[in-house]
Write a structure and sequence with these properties.
Elements lengths: L22 H9 L9 H20 L9 H13 L3 H6 L1 H10 L7
């Protein structure tokens, strides 16, 4: 795993921040208010992550394993907040072409 993806380098508990986003990008994403919502993405994520952590603490007390899993814990929260469905993206030819040609480019420090 590359240094830019190292969870220990995260500076924001919502995962919308360095090293994945610039401060300006993070502020834009966090202040976004999804359709049908009266609150920002930042507050939606904070609430969802707090709830997941409470459930995880109950399950993981014995092992002390409190890691957040991006695929299982974060993806559904981001999908709901931004109105994206991974199954739709898998079928979106324009998205797949863009991903194939440009890849996912992570910002360096």
């Amino acid at each position: 795993m590359g240094e830019a993806r190292d969870p220990e380098l995260l500076t924001d508990p919502s995962y919308i921040g360095s090293p994945y986003f610039t401060q300006s990008e993070a502020n834009q994403l966090k202040s976004f208010v999804p359709d049908g919502s009266d609150t920002t993405v930042h507050l939606l994520l904070e609430s969802a992550l707090d709830e997941k952590l409470k459930r995880r603490q109950k399950k993981r007390e014995a092992t002390q394993d409190y890691w957040v899993c991006a695929a299982h814990d974060l993806a559904p929260v981001f999908e709901k907040a931004f109105g994206v469905r991974s199954k739709d993206l898998q079928k979106d030819k324009k998205f797949i072409k863009s991903l194939t040609s440009d890849g996912l480019v992570l910002k360096e420090k």
